[in-house]
Amino acid sequence: MPKVGMKAIRQAQLIHATLTVIDRVGLADASLALIAKEAGVSTGIVSHYFGDKNGLLDACMRRILYELYLAVETHRRQAGQQPEAQIRAIIDGNFDVSQVTAPVLKTWLAFWTNSLHQPDLQRLQRINDRRLFSNLTAQFARVLPLQQARDAGASMAALIDGLWLRMTLAPQPMTQGIEKARALCYHNLALWLNRPAD
Q1: pLDDT digit string (tens) for 65-109?
Q2: Taking CA 83 as the corner, what is the angle to CA 66 and CA 112, rounded to the nearest 5 degrees?
Q3: Which of 14, 62, 102, 191 has its CA at a distance of 20 to 30 angstroms from the CA of residue 49?
Q4: N-to-C CA span, the chain
Q5: Phi, psi of 193 (to 5 degrees)
Q6: What CATH architecture does domain 60-193 belong to?
Q7: Which residue intervals of the chain bear CATH 1.10.10.60?
Q8: Distance between CA atoms of 187 and 11, rounded to whole angstroms?
Q9: How large is the average pLDDT for residues 39-46?
Q10: For domain 1-51, is the CATH number 1.10.10.60?
């Protein structure tokens, strides 16, 4: 009989191993055997908990998306309630340290690519996109007419995603580009609000 709580421990262990293996060899070469070896378990254990590699990637992305959600919410709770402060917090959450380690970055890229072909991953991607757009638009709508708020939300979401992609593909570590990315987002925010940029 398995120990109480073992399922959660094993799943966390296998998700961590998956991120590590994807970072090292890429998604295409991240076989269940390599992931099992990294986690120190049998391939059968991986299959038992996740079914196949797609199930494991889905679980990894759910974990990363949850950590992104927590990062954004933490930044928002620490910020003032003014719309500008809340939008800055959303920006900061998207560039939080929990989201910029090499294994997470490479898994994000694999997720984006595979979401084009896998309905379950595509659904997760749509949820993430809508959440970002909705959060930004709701804050912009507190100070801008609705259509302008939607345009501002779409613009900021595209900028965040675009900066993410550029930094992920850059040869230097992403941590070196975080402050620049935030500054560019803040500047875009100031333009929408017709205020001088910091």
Answers
A1: 999 999 999 999 999 999 999 999 999 999 998 887 778 888 888
A2: 35
A3: 102
A4: 60
A5: -90, 0
A6: Orthogonal Bundle (1.10)
A7: 1-51
A8: 41
A9: 89
A10: yes
